[in-house]
Amino acid sequence: MKKSFFVSTPIYYPSGNLHIGHAYTTTLADVIARYKKEQGYDVYFLTGSDEHGQKIELKAKEANQTPKDYVNQIVKTFKTLWKNLNINYDKFIRTDDKDHINAVQEAFSLLLKKDLVYLSNYSGKYCLSCEEFLKTDQMDSAFVHNVCFKTAIDFQEETYMLRVSMFRSYLNDLFKTNFLEPESRKNEMLTSFINNELEDLSITRINFSWGIPVLENKKHVIYVWFDALLSYISALGWGNEDNTLLDKFWTNGEVLQLIGKEITRFHSIYWPILLKSINLKTPDKLLSHGWILSKNIKMSKSIGNIVDPLELIDTYGADALRFYIINNLPTNKDGSFSEELFIESFNTNLANNIGNLISRVTNMIIKYFDGILPKVKIEENHLSKLGNKTIKEYEMLMDNYNMSEAVQVVLKLGSECNKFIEDEKPWSLEKENNQDKLTQILLILQKNIIIIIYLLKPILTDSYDKMIDQMGLKNKNINFDSLKEHNFEFDKIILKDVLYKRIK
């Protein structure tokens, strides 16, 4: 029986235009999902939209639309981006879906019966933009939130509270595991929240109507974060009759959730509490990636330095953006984006390294052997060994979700192949009529290029088939087993166009 794997992005808030942050997290998830499929897993990849809340209600009013009409048009842009970026998700959940609404109401009622939720009053500073109550160290002296740079408002009203404070010991035990990465994020949550006045959480509102009503008290709607977090399991059937997907992918599968660091508090503190309260396991891994910076400043709609991913795809193609995200934006720290960095990365890695390598080797096979190399046993040397070593290192890094490092291991193999060509000088061997050594060198290069192409398959979705075809591989249905065995058959190579032309 195949092993099961569940991966999710955040459920994106449709309050404005698309930005590269949407492309970032979703591409990470898509690449991991594709890799796991290559490893033989049954995979379920979830993304979606978080459609309720006061902010949406106000935005819709400003646009003279109903909240539903307002979010419908933004959801269309999400789906357009996913299609253009070759994102292959299994479900796009919307928190206005009927099954989800039923699940959220059932969860709230269950917690109310368990006395984990109680009616009270709450006051504090509230960031409407982030739909979040703020602690003092999250604001400056003028109450400006240090994430979105919007001024927090005073909040005071009747609300239902979730008994977060009674879970301190549970959270401390959870944070002793490797549940949350990177380590810096774990330390921040422990210091700033869990061991610093861990407060109960307000989980309903009465000052607006665009939300899921509380069955037991219809003047209350459920807080947008309580609503959104439950979408990860309502999408799998929790709260409805059929729990087949929930059992397979959550209860008995490996669960990875990808988030941006600004929403770590909700996913690492309140989400595990909700799961424990309804007797479900926590995710096996919560990977909290950094921000994308532009000139050392966080990209933000309020600052006006956001980048439209659809424009990048239209100009440079989906593979170029997917590659930059995986290679240049490591998950364990903030990454940088500018068009200059983007072009430099493409030219250095895809055009000069991978594209140039494929072009050089195919041209030599065509020129010296009419497009197909004789079948001979490869004599091991440092480059043939490096190919197998690269596969092992790549798998280890991908299994630990270190995608940027995994790609760099593959690029290193490409660089070594290019260096091997310069060192061995196949053109000189051909002039000397040293056919045996020339054949060996080109066979080693051809098979290492197949390794490179296959390991980049989860990223370069538009180019993969073209690269495989250009190398003349007869059976395109390769996997990790055949890759390690170097069990390849080749057809005659026909001269093709350059795959990655330098951007000028």
Output the CATH homologous superfamily of the largest domain.
HUPs
According to CATH, what is the class of the largest domain? Answer: Alpha Beta
| Main sheet record | 6 strands, parallel
CATH fold-type name of the largest domain:
Rossmann fold
* Helical amount: 40-55%
CATH architecture of the largest domain: 3-Layer(aba) Sandwich
**Overall pLDDT confidence:** 92
CA gyration radius, whole angstroms = 26 Å
User: Can you tell me the number of structural domains?
Assistant: 2
- The secondary-structure class comes to alpha/beta
In what order do the strands lie side by side in the largest sheet?
3-2-1-12-13-7
Supply the number of helical segments: 19
Low-pLDDT runs of 5+ residues are none
Strand element count: 16
Strand content: 15-25%
| N-C termini distance | 50 Å
Shape by Cα distribution: elongated
Task: Describe the secondary structure blueprint for this structure.
Layout: E1 4-12, H1 20-38, E2 42-49, H2 54-62, H3 67-84, E3 91-94, H4 98-113, E4 117-127, E5 132-133, E6 153-162, H5 168-174, E7 180-181, H6 183-194, E8 201-202, E9 204-205, E10 213-214, E11 217-222, H7 224-229, H8 231-234, H9 244-251, E12 254-260, H10 264-277, E13 285-289, E14 292-294, E15 297-298, H11 309-316, H12 318-328, E16 335-336, H13 339-369, H14 382-399, H15 403-424, H16 426-431, H17 435-455, H18 464-470, H19 480-485
Parallel strand pairs: 1-2, 1-12, 2-3, 7-13, 12-13, 14-16
Antiparallel strand pairs: 4-5, 4-6, 6-8, 9-11, 10-11, 14-15
